[in-house]
Amino acid sequence: MRTFLLPLALGLALPATAVADTVVLTPLLPDGVDGKVIGNVHQLLASELDFASGVDKVVDLPQRPSTLSTSCLTSTRCLGTIAGGNGGQRLISGILHSRGAGYGLELVLYDVASNSIVRRQEWESSSDPTELANGMTAIVSELLTGEDPNATAAAAPTVAAFDDSSDEEDFDFDEEPLGALPVAVGAGAAASAPPAAAPVEEDPLASISFGGSPADITVEDIDGIQFGAPAAGTSTPAPVAPQPLPPAPPVMPSSSVADLDAPATKVRNRAPKEKSMGSGSGATIERAGAETLQFTLRGGYSNYYRFNFMTIGGEVGVPVVAGLNVLAGMEAYGTSRTLPPDLAALEGETSSWETIFPMNLGAMYKFTGGIIQPYAGADTIFVQYYRDDVGADWAAGLRARGGADFMLIDNFGLNVNVAFGMWSGQNWPLIEQGVGSSGLLPQISGGTVLAF
Q1: CB distance 327 to 379 below 8 Å
Q2: What domain range is 76 assigned to?
Q3: How many CA atoms are closer than 13 Å to the CA of 315, on its beta-carbon side?
């Protein structure tokens, strides 16, 4: 057992630095800039993350989550909810500030595993689209790694760091390439000429090569040179084949030497790419949430003492701010009740199906951004449950609310709702024996939700 636990413990302790993560990218919060600029910078960030090292998948949120705010950028709980709800191990968000003629790009990198904000930094950028696109590569790299690639490139050695003096010392251009060699000229050459041989008709000048250096000319070549006609009885020595010349060294243009001193900054001219929904492996669709008007249709069941109500109705949710919605609705509560003997004799039947129409008004907070969108809230409920010639009787109460929307597409989904509370009406006991004037009012219901 020890031999199994030890490798397992070592494997858990080693950091998994080579594992690529899924990064969730949210739209930036604006600070003095318009929506078009926000969209362009968002596309530049998404494009750079597609090619960034250590990023396996980019979950690009096309809409800003309702919970994302300036305070959320400092809250690990808020950032963790957005990242975890979209299946990411890291999250990138931030603010785009207006800085005079340029922008201030403030970015936040959040890590799910450590539940911490790894890095929060602001970069100054020009408002020129080309300069902004070219600088985005270094910004994304420094955000992910913590190292400035421009500073690394500036520290690289230049051509000035190399010393060529040792190579130059190997060459001495003052020395004579050859010693003085006697050359026979005219008739005096006949006395020192070699024994007579058969004359050779080949031109001795053919052995001379004008393409080499003085060091390539041998003594034999010089002896073969004669000026004027050869003396009688002498012969011309056989020509010697010229030696092949060494290849000339490559010539480096002067402009290439100057380029070595420039910083080795990687420039990537990248224009914002056009997004097509569903075309990339990292693309996700954010479902409509609390930033849209919602209309819900439900049917369900409720109970108040001996009254078993079948319910059906609708409710409107109006967004206010950051996931908070104001609710207003109306339902029909129908029940079949046994009539008192005197009323049964008058009506000619022992039971009757009767309906009341409660209305509700309240608020809820909804967590948006995914397919499943839970919510919680509270409301008041009031209803006119009896009316005759004398007047009308009303009941009112409070309820706690909870449930979830399951968004199938952007503007349509299914709803499950639970409410629990109580209401009170003075004359409920006159309607049915055994019914109190106050009591609990639970309800469970479900239906569909439309988002506009």
Answers
A1: yes
A2: 20-154
A3: 28
- The per-residue pLDDT for range 215-242, each reduced to its tens digit, is 555 555 555 555 555 555 555 555 556 6
Token pair for residue 123?
Answer: 């970069």
Tell me whether residue 244 is in a domain: no
Q: Rounded to 5, what percent of the chain is helix, strand, coil?
A: 25, 35, 40
How many Cβ atoms from other residues are within 10 Å of residue 22's Cβ?
18
Cβ atoms 149, 138 nearer than 8 A: yes
266-to-19, 55, 269, 397 alpha-carbon distances in Å? 25, 19, 10, 68
Residues 6+ apart with CB under 8 A from 175: none
Given 154, 178, 209, which residue is the final one in a domain?
Answer: 154
Assign 26 to helix, strand or coil.
Answer: coil
Residue 426: CATH number of its domain: 2.40.160.20
* Beta-ladder partners of 376: 365, 402
Is residue 378 one of the residues assigned to a domain? Answer: yes
Region class of 281: left (phi > 0), else alpha (psi between -120 and 50), else beta: alpha
Which residue, among 365, 296, 287, has the nearest Cα to 326 in the 3D structure?
Answer: 365
Return d(Cα 253, Cα 315) in angstroms, integer: 78
**What's the number of CA atoms in the CB half-sphere (13 Å) around residue 87?**
13
Do 378 and 399 form a contact (C-beta atoms < 8 A)?
yes
DSSP-assigned states of every residue in 88-145: -SEEEEEEEEEETTEEEEEEEEEETTTTEEEEEEEEEEES-HHHHHHHHHHHHHHHHH
Domain boundary among the residues 95, 127, 154 is at: 154
Q: What is the CATH number of the domain that holds 53?
A: 3.40.50.10610
Q: What is the pLDDT of residue 251?
A: 55
3-state DSSP of 133-188: HHHHHHHHHHHHHCCCHHHHHHCCCCHHHCCCHHHHCCCCCCCCCCCCCCCCCHHH
Full-model pTM: 0.41
pLDDT, tens only, 250-262: 655 444 444 445 4
**Position 51 in a domain:** yes
Closest CA to 429 of 306, 289, 300, 247: 306
Separation CA 231–CA 243 (nearest Å): 29
Q: Domain total for the chain?
A: 2
Q: Is residue 10 part of a domain?
A: no
